[in-house]
Amino acid sequence: MWCQSCKEEYEEEDAGTCKECYEEASETEEELKREIDDLRSRLLFLRLPSPTLDAASAPHTDLFLHAIPACSSTGAGGEADAVRVPDTPAVPAHRVILASRSPVFRAMLENEMEESRSGIIKIYDVSYDVLRAFVHYMYTAEALLDEQLASDLLVLAEKYEVKHLKAYCEKFITSKVNNDNAIAHYAFAHRHGAKQLLEASLSELMNNMSTLADREEYKELVEKDPRLVVEIYEAYLNRQVNTAAGKDTDCGCRK
Amino acid sequence: MWCQSCKEEYEEEDAGTCKECYEEASETEEELKREIDDLRSRLLFLRLPSPTLDAASAPHTDLFLHAIPACSSTGAGGEADAVRVPDTPAVPAHRVILASRSPVFRAMLENEMEESRSGIIKIYDVSYDVLRAFVHYMYTAEALLDEQLASDLLVLAEKYEVKHLKAYCEKFITSKVNNDNAIAHYAFAHRHGAKQLLEASLSELMNNMSTLADREEYKELVEKDPRLVVEIYEAYLNRQVNTAAGKDTDCGCRK
C-alpha cells in the first residue's frame, strides 16, 4: 500500500496510521501552525523598541542605569554607595517598562527611594555589556546568549526577580552542560536556585563518578563547600539503590 | 493492520501513512507544541499591565486620552478643537507605549505639538468604552470583541495606523459576514480599505444576487454610493465569465 505523506510503497508491518488519523493529524498540524503565526504576530506587536540599540528610536526615557563592575566596588554587596560611577555610558530605560518586568525595580521606583527621585539606578557587580543585554531583554524578550552572558544575566535576573529571563538563561546553560563544566555548573546552580540546571549537571556528574575525584574543580569544591560534594555522593548512592531495586523487580517479573 | 494512532484495525484501502512518516509527524507536532509554549510565555512576559484596568497597577502614566463622542463634536473632522471635554474620566497611558504602537501618536508626541506639551490627547468621534478598549489593546494585544466594538476599533486603528489591531478586528468581522449584513460590511470595508472583509462580503453578496435588489440597504447604497453597487455587478459578471470559461475547459478535457 501507499503512504499518503511520502508517497512511497510500504509493507503491512511498516504501517503507521489509518487514513482518518492521517487526515486528523494534518489538520492539527495546520491549526498549530496558524496558532504559531498568530502568536508571532502578537509578539512582534508587543515588542518595544529597545533604547539600548538606538536612543532615538525610543524617546521619553526617564531612567538611567549605571553598571558598576565588581572591581570598582569597595566591598561585597550593597555598602558600595559611595562608589564612583564609571566612565561607561548610562543605559537609558523607561520606568514603566522596568517596573512592569521586575518587582524589585517596581518597589525601588514606587517607594520614595533615592532611585525614584533621581531617575538613576546603580547596578553593582556587572559589566556595561551585560547590563545593556539585561535592559534589552526587558523590551524585546530576546538575547543573543553565550555561556558567559547567560550566567551573568541569570544572576541579574535572579537579583531583580525577572523570572522569565532567569528561566530562559537556565534553559540555555542546561543545554551546554558536559563532563568538563558539570562541577562549575552544579555549584552555580546551587548558588542561584536553578533547579533544572542542578539536575542536569548532577546527572552528568553521576555518569562520570570514576573520574570525579581527580578533577581540580572537585578539590576546590571540597575545600570551599563540602556540603555540595556530600550531596553529589548522596544522590549517586540513592540512584544506585534505586537501580538495584529496579533490577530486583525486573527479575521478579521474569520468574 | 493496526493504526498506531487510534489503535483500530483498518483495511489496505484505508491506509494513511507508513510508520516512518507517522513518527516524523508526531515529532513535528511535539515541536510545534513546544514552540507554542515558548511563544506564549514570551507573550506573557511582554504584555504590560494596562492602566485602563487599574491605574494603581500601572504607575508613571504621563498621558491622558479624552474620548469626544461624535455628538459633542461641532463639525466633521479636526475643526472641533474648542469642543468641551465630556465628563467621562480620562484614559491614562504612557507616552512610550502609545508612541511605539502608533506612528501617528509618535509624531504627535515627538514633534512639539500641543498634545506633547500638555500630555492631553483628544480622540474625536469615539465613546469612552471604545477608547478604553483601544488603549487596553496597546498594552496587552487583547480585546474582547463583538461586531460593534470590532468596527469601532478598526476605525480607530486605521486612523492611528495600528496595523496589528486593524488586522485583528478585520479578521473578527470577516468571520461574522452573512447574507443579512453583507451590504453593510461591504460598504464599511470599502470606506476603510479592509481587503479581506471586502472580498468576504462581496463573495456573500454574489452568492445571493437574486434577492440583492430587494433589500433596503441595497437601495440606500444605490442612493449614497452607486459606484460601489456597480463594482458588485462587475465582480458578479466577471465571475460568471470565468465560471463559463472553466466549464468550457472541463468539457474540452473530457472529449
Automatic annotation (TrEMBL), chains A, B:
Pathway: Protein modification; protein ubiquitination. Gene3D superfamilies: 1.25.40.420, Potassium Channel Kv1.1, Chain A (3.30.710.10). It comes from the Eukaryota. Transmembrane segments: none annotated. SUPFAM superfamilies: POZ domain. InterPro entries: BTB/POZ_dom, SKP1/BTB/POZ_sf. Residues 80-147 form the BTB domain. SMART domains: BTB. This is BTB domain-containing protein. The lineage of its organism: Eukaryota, Viridiplantae, Streptophyta, Embryophyta, Tracheophyta.
